[in-house]
């Protein structure tokens, strides 16, 4: 027992360190130091300083709400479905609120007071034009994918002004059908004034690992300023203002309002919170960039639009009611808000990990120099002799054999076997 | 000064390499080479080739917009709230546009022309059935969580056809109340034709690190094809068509339209962009998979439905007005679109990092062989002698002691102390 | 040929192991063992056990749908636009369904039966108050950013009860304009009962790497319980109930219903799925936490509200129609649902990687001890002698020179050159 304890204690006070061949050579030393310099430079310069390898990082978590403001006035007294009217936020933001995105209508084709009945189909639908009832009768009950309802079987005059005299099959559905052609009479989009709308983007973020919460309202500004300011990327003060004029967003992305307002499009607003929390948290401020996400060179997928409708019932004189709806084909700009960013803060753990992997990488310089010394240099045989101690397993067993003469004979067979197999 | 410089210069031209015991043994050599083979095979075969360890990677960023097309016709002339009517995209997509998702109504319970007044409560609400006013009077002002309004205190005849003769408490609220039972009279969902609706999914993606932008429209197809094609996973051409028939989505996920259309459900459309940018960017194309997200075996959480209403005012003869609304309980399929994917491109940094960690891993084979050689092999004492150079700290201090005789005596006490404590 | 094969075979049966100086020293041994203990403790205790370094991990993928229930009754017979009425789910959830979020209206300013015409502007708009037509004439056609339409040029009496006698410019737009002041007459929010609303959150998740799908419905509960239960964080059973009373969510986040209901706000519901799949999958259950995301100390960004409208047409006696709308300024609570979590499962690969980097880290203890032994200890020269074998490159070439006498003379010049440059 005492022996075991003593040998355990002696094992405890031991320490192993590799034996080193220390070679003094200008050529190899130079290679060695040069490689070490590159590796240390990479670790310190790139990994630790440039990549901030001494920092622990945390991804941003975010909540965004938006509020649009602005009034548009349309003066199309010749187009009865639009007329002279004012469009406000409840008219042009659809749906009224969303997460991380909002839609602003810039152009619209209203089709008012539709009701379920029968009427001539849109003459631009493929195969809908007819000369007599026979053709339509053969399609009775069918509905074209791009049509507005099932065909009743009658051939009637189109009610589209541009297709005066054309005959089309009659359909059953929401009548009258939408006439998309209306837009071609317009010189500019209906909500031309939408370029001046502003959006107030409220962005609360948190870096959960560091318990840091921020928002995109400048800390040092008063309410007076915040209620009047407008974002301007070129102003050192206004570039933190969270109120954006739509045309500013577009022009910062290199888009002309005229090129997107008629047919719509998809824009991205990127809010970047890249924060170095080793400095004051006051320096943790957002930066905004803007870009267009859709590219419109194919005919079938140009722009951004969708249809929505308000339904309502109208009482008839006999006390019964009829369903009506106002249909809108809304063209406009869909804004997606992406909040990204990472915060870094000094932490001993990533620093040690990077230093550790740097030390491991230093071994690479030894490997390369070894190749030079042992395989390339003229004196390679000499260096190899100094670095390597050649041991043959058979020598070990010769010694064993000699020692074995004193060991009991029952072990001898086993040991012979080992000698042979090794 | 010159001495310091010279010794610094000499230190600069040095190079350290570990001294190695080179053991020639079939047994250990075999183990060593076998382990090295496994490690090198793992590094090259798995990490570098299979896992593409030579590539830098970038996650996909994406924007999705959708456009539904299709017409449904319902022919329920016996159910007055539905009747014979056509349902179009403005009727069945609610809300009209969303980010990364869309909802298609497949079944509906309309309750038209509701207005704020008093009426009999839904008789299926627990505890609402009564025999006389006394019971209802005791509940006056209370509202059941699943009820439609506060109880007025009167006991009245139910107006539900299936509960003819049943008496229920009267409530104040939107009247008449919704009668969910209507659906049980239907043999198939109201928007039975919704199986043929198509959705055009426009997906613009970008891999920010590589500056590669793509969209899910085949580059080499003309507008003619794109306006007519339909997705088909079995066709080498149509599997890139971004227009999906709803029934195709369901059947690819192993779902029968009949099993989801009546009560609704939640489907996921996964668009996967896994791109190897070492090849032509033309090969960076999406693949689509579909699955059902909700599983409906518990009664309380089956399917997917929600209620929405269109409100409107109706002028009365005396010039005042009254609020009305049409309430819809919409059953349908909620489609969530998930865009995922990673692009890889050759980069020297991850390749070096993987080779580096591979070299470090090679050390494991030495450790395992050392265990075999030093603890298991018969000749372990011999090998240990060759590997280890035994040094006792006391020897160091004996030498020191001898050398010390020449050092000034004031240092001697300190050095003795060291000798004792080490 | 046979020679090459034989030497290749002999190289195959070799094995290199570093030669070690084994130092027996209490002081250094102690430092060494202490450092090793810290490193091994860090690896095993922190990395492997605490951080579960033996597990492969997978991030959660999730789909959330919500369903609100509850009835509110408002009894403001003195405010005609609200009156005595019942609010149900189709009234207070706007839009009716969203992904990962929902909005509950708690307070509202309705402006009913607006139509496009001319009327006095809101007197609280800056610069709108006038004394005579001249002032308004100078602003004709302009619209204030916070106004409701372009100015017609007339100066008229305000129709706001609180601004009796004030004159303001007339505008063209949706008339009458919204009177936000109405709220100041209320002692409590219109939908005071919204505190009792409940939301059923259906959350289906999947850990794709492990093929594990779960949902937030307790497996072992019957439909009876699930249709009646309410979430309670203090109950071991009810803390898994997926039905949440709104006031419970608020109070768990430390928010009084009274402090958020009048002006609205943004709340976050975090569903955390942190699962150890080494145990039964039945233990993989969600936990819920709640917090408020917006902080309201600046005037301009307090609370959460937005405007929406229901539009409808009204037929006039002459058969033509006029557009009307009901405008609502909706105050309420926006709930964002964040699903997060990671599942871990035993896997040999991360375990080996962590053990591997742990072994590499052990080298640090040798480096530190080497510093102590070679630079600090009194016997450093002795130890250095034992660890290092000093080799001068010039010795190598002296030997070469001697050997060279037997090599052909044409190589001699080249070898001399090498000797000089190394």
UniProtKB/TrEMBL annotation, chains A, B, C:
One of its GO terms (molecular function) is purinergic nucleotide receptor activity. Glycans are attached at residue 196. It catalyses: Na(+)(in) = Na(+)(out); Ca(2+)(in) = Ca(2+)(out). The keyword Transcription regulation does not apply. It comes from the Eukaryota. Disulfide bonds join 119-175, 130-155, 136-169, 229-241, 275-284. Keywords: ATP-binding, Cell membrane, Disulfide bond, Glycoprotein, Ion channel, Ion transport, Ligand-gated ion channel, Membrane, Nucleotide-binding, Receptor, Transmembrane, Transmembrane helix, Transport. The chain crosses the membrane at residues 30-49, 359-377. InterPro entries: P2X_extracellular_dom_sf, P2X_purnocptor, P2X_receptor. Its main location: membrane. It is a multi-pass membrane protein. ATP binds at residues 67-69, 198, 305-307, 329. GO terms for cellular component: plasma membrane; postsynapse. It is found in: Cell membrane. Pfam families: P2X_receptor. PANTHER family: P2X PURINOCEPTOR, P2X RECEPTOR E. NCBIfam families: P2X. Belongs to the P2X receptor family. This is P2x purinoceptor. It comes from Plakobranchus ocellatus. The lineage of its organism: Eukaryota, Metazoa, Spiralia, Lophotrochozoa, Mollusca.
